[in-house]
Each structure stands twice: as C-alpha cells, then as structure tokens.
Amino acid sequence: MKKVVSYQCSICKTEYPAIREAKKCEGRFAERKIFRAGDKVKNIEPRACNKNHKQYRFKGTVIKIHGPKPADYEYEAKWLGGKRTNWHVFHYEVKFTCPMCKEERSELYYAPELLRLRENLRTLK
Ligand SMILES: [Zn+2]
Ligand SMILES: [Zn+2]
Asked: What is the DSSP string of 12-30?
C-alpha cells in the first residue's frame, strides 16, 4: 500500500503533490467576482450555432459561479493579452437560448467574455 500525500490550495481547493506548488497557488491573486447568479449578460465574441453554424450573440442569465480556480493559459493569453498570469479566476455558468435553433444551452464563460445587460441596472433602482 502506498500512502499519497497531497497539499491543497486553500483558495481554489486544487490539490498538488508538492507543498511548494500548493503555496505557489495560494500566492496567486484572486480575481474580483463581478457577476452574481441571476445577472443578465451577453457574450462579446460571437459563438456558432451547433445546428446551422451561423454566428450569434446571446442574452442569458448567470446561473452558477464556479471557482475560484487557477486561470488557464488560454484565458490569460487570449482575453488579457498575457498581461496577467496565474490568477485565481471565476467561471460563470450562463444559461441562454440559441437564437438560431432555439436550443437551450448552459456554457461556462470567464468574466472578460461577458457584458452586463442594462436590465440589471434598472432592477437595482
Ligand atoms: Zn489555488
Ligand atoms: Zn443553435
């Protein structure tokens, strides 16, 4: 029997085999949570419909927030131009209906990929 020890980052709960890696993860900055469950959002970069491959933008609702978790390379390189590395970030689960085929979907998005809809501001007043 082999005993396996792992170290967990207290912020994102990721487990690492070496304490050094867990400490490094804990040292990462944490992104501010900018959307809440129930917020109405739209996507910035168009996505393609699964059925007819037409591009579209959606208006959807944040239903769940995942994280904080370590940012992946694609996120930081693509959305932040590599200006920032190794942060803890949030993933926002957004529910929306594809305007092309009316299919209901829920997808994960990072904060810079989404814009808040004006409707939210109205409900705050
Ligand atoms: Zn972490
Ligand atoms: Zn579709």
From this structure: T--EESSHHHHHHHHTS-B
Instruction: State in Å: Cα 85 to ligand 1 middle.
Output: 13
Stated pTM of the model: 0.83
What is the CA(83)–ligand 1 centre distance, in A? Answer: 19
Distance, CA 61 to ligand 1 centroid (Å)? 27
Q: Are 58 and 102 part of one and the same domain?
A: yes
How confident is the model at residue 124, as a pLDDT?
53
72 pLDDT tier (thresholds 50, 70, 90): confident
Does residue 77 share a domain with residue 23? no
* Residues spanned by the domain of 10: 1-28
| Whether residue 82 is found in the same domain as residue 37 | yes
